[in-house]
Amino acid sequence: MEISQEKKTEEEDMGLIQKLRDGEEEIAAEVTEKNFQLLYRYGKAYLKMRQYDKAEKIFVKLIPFLKLYHRNRFLAEVLFEEAICIWWITPARTTAASG
Description:
By secondary structure, the protein is an all-alpha fold. Helix content is 83%, strand content 0%. It has five helices and no strands. The longest helix has 27 residues, at 72-98. The radius of gyration is 15 Å and the shape is globular.
């Protein structure tokens, strides 16, 4: 990877982090053809930052849209990532309930 590509990737990552901080209204928006990929990237970013509750909310919103419009590759990834979120969140819920 060239240095210019590496710097560009870092700038894109910083831009995405800033958008995640400022973009709560975009996440609350209805899923459309224009924004489903952006929401998908937000969900993946929250998953990588281990903010499973926020990621799961996005994935739950995306699933009906992806099923309806037959976006099967995205649907497969979102279902898998939603399962990861549920897997991480569930032990925390059962521990809190029993304690």
